Fold this sequence. Notes:
The complex is a heterodimer.
Chain A: H1 2-57, H2 74-77, H3 80-84, H4 91-101, H5 108-112, H6 132-146, H7 176-185, H8 188-191, H9 212-221, H10 232-241, H11 268-271, H12 274-286
Helix pairs in contact in A: 1-6, 4-6, 7-12, 9-10, 10-12
Chain B: H1 9-17, H2 19-34, H3 40-48, H4 60-64, H5 66-69, E1 74-76, H6 88-108, H7 117-127, H8 131-158, H9 167-189, H10 194-207, H11 213-224, H12 231-263, E2 287-289, H13 290-315, H14 341-349, H15 352-373, H16 385-405, H17 415-423, H18 430-433, E3 443-446, H19 456-473, H20 476-481, E4 489-498, E5 501-509, E6 525-533
Antiparallel strand pairs in B: 1-2, 3-4, 4-5, 5-6
Amino acid sequence: MTWRVIVGTISFVITMIMLGFVAVTEQDRMANFSVAYEARTVETGGALFESNCATCHGLDGAGVPAKGPALNTPELFNGARLTEANFAGTVDNFIRLTIAGGRPRMSEWARAQSFIDPMPTWGETYGGPMRNDQVDALTNYIMNWGLAYQGGAQPTAEPVVGVGTDITVELPPGDAASGEALATSQGCTACHVLSATGPAWLAASDPNDQGIGTRAALRLEQPDYQGAATTPEQYLFESIVAPNAYLVTDNPAYINAATGQSIMPATYGALLDPQMTSDLIAYLMTLK
Amino acid sequence: MAVFKPHLPILEDIKTKGFLAALLFKTNEAVERLTAGLDIEDIRGVLRGDPAPRPNPRVKPHADGFWFHMRPTYYHNLVTGLYPSFRLGWLSTYFFVFEIITGLFLMIYYTPSPLVAYENMLNILSNVPFGRLMRDTHKLGAELMVIVVLLHMARTFLTGNYKKPRQFTWATGVVLLFVTLLLSFSGYLLPWDQLSLWAVTIGASMVEAMPPPAVGELVNLVVRGGPQFNAGGLLRWYLAHVLLLPLVGIVFLGVHYYKVVIHGHSLPPEAEPVGEDTAKRVPTDQRTYFMPDVITREVLYVALLTAVVVAWSIFSFHAPLEPHADPLITPLHTTAPWYFLFLQGMLKIGDKVVWGLIAPGILTGLLIALPYLEVGPSRRYGDRRVGLSVGLLAVAVMAILSFMGTPHYLVSSSPDQEIVAELLPQTQPGPLRESDWNEMTAGTWRAAEWEAAPTATLRNLLHLYQEEVEHAQDSTRCRRAGNCLTDPQGSMLIEDWQDDLKRITFRVIWDGGPDQVCAVGSQNEFCQVVYFHKNANYWQKP
């Protein structure tokens, strides 16, 4: 009898102590679970990406030409894509909305990449096949690529030895295909698609139906041309590395009113090595 | 003359006795009303184990109080110990109440909709203080309740207590057994994870077999709330779980308890003459009063068991939470809950109608009719050789059927998938996910060369991998299924995929395998990819 009361009381006290232990450790446990769950959604997202997205965006997120843009790229995370899409929200939201709603109307930019099909709608909210938690998991997985680009880190492993601004140097032979990829990865296409923000390269977006390759040759012959180029290739070289050598005045929007300089960054001489420059020029020359 | 004169007797008391004495007197009176007859001094006497004063105030609650009138005033000395009842009936009641309390807590944070049910689980785990403990104890309590109720039934059978005049008590007990099983089972669906969906899908597919087809289809629609389990089905099972089944349980619990008191707690079989029921005629010198002896035992059991359940839930038992329910993905090795494994085993024997419906129906009928089948007057073990043998045989058959219900029996999945499923199960974290992320060195690792791996974690994993590969080459299991692999080889490719994320590809080849690695539609090769995040923390469990 007495021992029953004692053992029962001790059990009750032990239960209370254990509940106290839970109360004290609960905040940490809940926080840990949130972190762990977030990490598990990245895993789920990886599997979903592999089975649903990799065909067009590449398994490693590098993009597939004519199918889908790269996602494992600083432009997605540094705001360049957002600017191009005129999106005022966060990168996270941009990705989530793009997955959930798709891009039924292909943007000018996507057209310029000559993607064959628009981004399909995935979220069930908008009539797609994926639940919201799956869209969230995919978003987390894609956002996880962004960690590598935090703090302004660039994807290139080795530092680039710039080509400089002297357009008379001899360039190695260029490869138009890799130039096309560079046009995307170096951010050229962010501006040179819509003529409102920068001269469009493609013949289709020029009023006179002339691509940048044709125009480069014509510019040289213009009486007001002040640059040093003697060939169309050199003209393009000059436009890339020394954009202020000769200002095209077709559109006042191309010139920064405050400084009187071109809105084209004058830094590409340092960002592109000779091979990259040559590739880009080779690509541009194909756009007749 | 005052129009309104307040009448406060306590003021008179305070005037005559003084404040403290009046307060004590009133408190004592309140306690006496709450306990329906015991004042503070009486309760202290009970707890101290004093001999009962005369007249005995401890019998008054049994006559005047609601809760105590359901309990006998005194027991026979022979039934108050562990044997013969093991207090399993009391413990069943305890778990019923325990589940109601923890269940009410969980109900606050739960919405029965497929859109948010799983998110609710995550919220309970990540944002509700004591949320995980409540979920774990609710789940653990449910499992223990099934065990305790089954043991209670087995004990009643073994000591022959269900015989005349207690047939009706037995029948209500069978109803309570089914209520318990259905309560536990219906709770499976509510978290809306893969485990929920598929365990319940298996269960519901049995009722679909009900003949004729028109009826089966209708019952299936009613049970699933549509052709597929979804919002409708979840709501139905939720309402059954929190409303219908508890109500039925409470009603039958009341009847069951009442019948137990009416007939008295029967003595151990050997303690009374054959054919006689002396439970209600307890000689005065053989009485153990409910207060203080029985009640302290019962409270002791409850206190001990609560401590055990809470400790178990905090330190080791965690209710599983699998990935979100997905009707398109059937996990490998889906099983019914353990207490329905025998049904799954019977379904493997043959026809769905015969083994999934008619046989369980007959079993249920036999169970209820048991008191009318074993009609011998004696409850003594020696006189019930046939009955007890049949009972033990039934237990053995149930055990065998339950084993047949597990994936170990007659499930012909490909051995190559089994190898990977052993390291990377689809229904639980498993060895790979519980490994140390930092020790998963990038590279291609061959299972056969596990000893050469650079880290202990990899060596363990690859060793396990190699063992499974060898099983797929030659084991009783694959020999029986006739699908042993010729010269199987396992390898594992670990890539540093993103920051804090590794991509791991399992590749099993046999018969030389294809030239290309993990190409779509290749022969003699099985590839499975898993992503593994540094912070996924699977060993901490949900």
